[in-house]
Amino acid sequence: MLKDTDYVHEAGGIQYISDKAFIENIKPVKVDFNEMGFKVTSNMKSEGGSEGGCSGCGSTSSCCSS
Fold first, then answer.
1. Distance of CA 16 to CAs 30, 37, 41, 51, Å?
2. In which domain, by residue range, is 30 found?
3. Residue 12 lies inside a defined structural domain of this protein
4. Which end of the chain is more exposed for a tag (fewer CB within 10 A), N or C?
């Protein structure tokens, strides 16, 4: 169930739901899909300086913990 504070965006048949205030703080947000999973790029600063993402590789490497 959606809340009043939810932001909903649909692209390519996929619906993305996030908190409106969170999106305002990190935008622009870009999600790139590739053969290994996806990569998220935003204005948000991470501790390791890398971008987030994940794949179905089952890895515990930094790519799945960002």
1. 12, 16, 15, 18
2. 6-53
3. yes
4. N
